[in-house]
């Protein structure tokens, strides 16, 4: 083996990963299905493998970052001799099905420009000996956060965190639609929105304890109060002809919980409705 690490897949993310390894002084072998993406990495000092199989036999750690699991299955060598660190996005079920000895799954919680920044994080789970062996190498990409031996946990947390991102972004866009309808600008409103995210982060830290305990005291604000306030959000959206589907969703959850007799509980009580829906 002539390299420290091999990178399979040189899309936007794979190229950023390979470049970060090179910047840290590692010997890197690269492979990509479409050859044109290999040249910029070779110019930075990477060795180009002539096949995916050759790449997988060139280094003790192979980092894969392709479109999806079916794409990875097409190129994966069952006789891969080293550690496979799979940074391809997938479901927890796909990660658990793919896992074997020396398999580490990862969830990248940044975009390509954030690779190499220690403020960024990558979630890992899977074979713990393999993770410990590869940890120093992986540290050059972002702060490695080890979630333990369950190979599905990194993908589960990754997906859950992305859910928070989409909910937050869409909530902010709805709010921006609301304020811009009356002539304000998103840029004037947004500093207040980002400031508000601080208290909201505090609320969820408090509610995490309640979720784990299954007890949801309305000691900060009751569902009765939330419901009355959500009426205003639905109304303000409808008057401005802004899609009210999102506030109506929140409103209907609050109403359901209140009708079930939980009006004096807090917002964390809604998790019971989310769970019931999934069952
Ligand atoms: N870009 C991002 O910000 C996100 C951050 C979080 C993690 N994702 C995941 O990373 C995987 C790759 O994403 P990407 O952004 O690098 O995507 P592309 O630039 O489109 O590159 C895709 C690479 O996959 C190769 N590929 C596709 N199909 C096949 C196949 N059948 N066999 C072999 N390789 C395949 C593709 O090759 P080519 O089209 O250049 O020949 C690229 O190398 C992904 O799971 C994200 O969810 C990124």
UniProtKB/TrEMBL annotation:
GO terms for biological process: transcription elongation-coupled chromatin remodeling. Residues 4-145 form the 6-phosphogluconate dehydrogenase NADP-binding domain. GO terms for cellular component: chromatin. GO terms for molecular function: DNA binding; NADP binding; nucleosome binding; oxidoreductase activity. InterPro entries: 6PGD_dom2 (IPR013328), 6PGDH_NADP-bd (IPR006115), HIBADH-related (IPR015815), HIBADH-related_NP60_sf (IPR051265), NAD(P)-bd_dom_sf (IPR036291), RedAm-like_C (IPR048666). Belongs to the HIBADH-related family. This is NAD(P)-dependent oxidoreductase. It comes from Lentzea alba. The lineage of its organism: Bacteria, Bacillati, Actinomycetota, Actinomycetes, Pseudonocardiales.
């Amino acid at each position: 083996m002539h390299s420290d690490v091999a990178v399979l897949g040189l899309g936007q993310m794979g190229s950023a990963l390979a470049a970060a390894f090179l910047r840290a002084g590692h010997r890197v072998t690269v492979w990509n299905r479409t050859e044109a993406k290999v040249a910029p990495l070779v110019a930075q000092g990477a060795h180009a493998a002539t096949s995916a199989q050759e790449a997988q036999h060139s280094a003790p750690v192979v980092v894969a970052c392709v479109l999806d699991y079916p794409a990875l299955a097409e190129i994966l060598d069952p006789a891969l001799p080293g550690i496979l660190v799979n940074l391809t996005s997938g479901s927890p079920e796909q990660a658990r099905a793919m896992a074997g000895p020396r398999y580490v799954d990862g969830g990248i919680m940044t975009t390509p420009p954030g690779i190499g920044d220690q403020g960024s994080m990558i979630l890992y789970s899977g074979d713990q000996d393999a993770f410990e062996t590869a940890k120093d190498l992986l540290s050059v990409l972002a702060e490695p956060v080890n979630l333990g031996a369950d190979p599905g946990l990194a993908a589960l947390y990754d997906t859950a965190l992305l859910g928070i991102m989409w909910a937050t972004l869409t909530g902010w866009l709805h709010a921006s639609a609301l304020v811009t309808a009356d002539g304000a600008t998103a840029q004037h409103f947004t500093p207040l929105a980002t400031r508000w995210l601080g208290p909201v982060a505090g609320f969820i830290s408090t509610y995490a304890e309640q979720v784990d305990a299954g007890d949801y005291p309305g000691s900060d604000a009751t569902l009765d109060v939330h419901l009355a306030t959500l009426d205003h959000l639905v109304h303000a959206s409808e008057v401005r002809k802004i899609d009210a589907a999102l506030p109506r969703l929140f409103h209907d959850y609050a109403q359901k919980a209140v009708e079930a007799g939980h009006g004096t509980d807090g917002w964390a009580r809604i998790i019971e409705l989310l769970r019931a829906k999934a069952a």
